[in-house]
Design a protein that fits this description.
Elements: H1 8-16, E1 29-37, E2 46-55, E3 58-66, E4 72-82, E5 85-97, E6 103-111, E7 118-126, H2 128-132, E8 145-153, E9 157-165
Antiparallel strand pairs: 1-2, 2-5, 3-4, 5-6, 6-9, 7-8
Length: 166
Amino acid sequence: MGPWTFFRPDYLRNNALNGQSTGEVRRWRWNALTNYSVTRGRLKGMGLGAGYRWEDQAVIGYAPMRTAAGDDAINLNAPVYAPAQDSVDLWISYERDLSRSIRWKVQFNVYNALGKNELIPFAAGVDHEKLAGIGPLSPSTVIPMKPVAFTIREGLSWQISHTFEF
C-alpha cells in the first residue's frame, strides 16, 4: 500500500460523480415578484409587495452499490433527493421626503409568510435497518438510503428597516 491509499476512496467517489448533480444544487427554480406604489392621493408614499420562490428537489447523495467484480462503487442511477421548497414573502412600506435632499423609507417585511420551522436534509447515508432485511448484495441491489444531516429552515420571520437616501 502506497502513501496515497488513504485518499483513493475520495478520488474514486469524485471521479464517479464527475458530470453529475452537485449536492444541494437545485436544477430548477423560479421567482415571481410584484410591487405596487401609491403615487398620489391620501395614501401617497405607501407600497405593497409580494414575492414567491420555488426551488426544485436537490440531490443529497447517491446510493452505494456492489459491482459484479465485488467492488464497492456509487450507483449513479439511485440519487437521494431533498424535497422541493417554496416560500412567500410580503411587505408594506411608506416613504416620503424629509427635506429637499433627504428621502426616508420604512418597510415591514414578512419572510416565508406561509412556512413553518422544518428540517431540510442536505446529506444522505445508508439506512442500515432496511439494509439488514435485504440479504446478500448483488449488482442489481439498490442500497436503501435515508437523510442523515439536516439544516433548519426558518419559518415565518419579520424585519423592519429604515432607509435614508441623500
